[in-house]
Amino acid sequence: VVMQVRMVPIEQVFDRFPRMVRDLSKKLNKKIDLVLEGKETEMDRTVIDEIGDPMVHLIRNSIDHGIESPAERVAKGKPETGTIHLVARHEGQHVIIEVKDDGKGIDPRIIGPLAVKRGLFTQDQIDKMPPEDVIKIIFLPGFSTAEVISDLSGRGVGMDAVKSKLDELNGTLDVESKV
Predict the structure, then answer these.
(1) Residue 70, CB half-sphere, CA atoms under 13 Å: how many?
(2) Which of 61, 66, 87, 135 suits 156 as a labelling partner, its CA being 20 to 30 A distant?
């Protein structure tokens, strides 16, 4: 009964994202639809309080780095409007939260050279890493793929903050990406 009392729907976290996506897409001149699924999924109140900021970073990254401009999308044969899916669901005793976008993906061929350029790895180390490990470099403190530092990205405090917070909450983080 005590555990049940502590459970609240993730809806209160999800509800702040439609406006954020709308504002950022307008600011970046992108067309983006946000699809929310599983708003009724319940989580412990303390996790709900802590999970919002990491989700903000993930969604902002999808908007800034993932979803291309309408012109780029059309040139690639994609619809002009990008889509971000935010999904919450139960799997056994765990709650899975997915942030998916139909953008350009995380390209290990871009991440690897940037990591070498920034002195985090040698080219030999990068060459020996599988692509999925190269992609995980984005979670290192201070790492950013942004060319220009802006109020939205390039400061190197996004993805490592997500990983740190999820580690703190005894959560796990997986990345699947297709260029």
Answers:
(1) 10
(2) 87
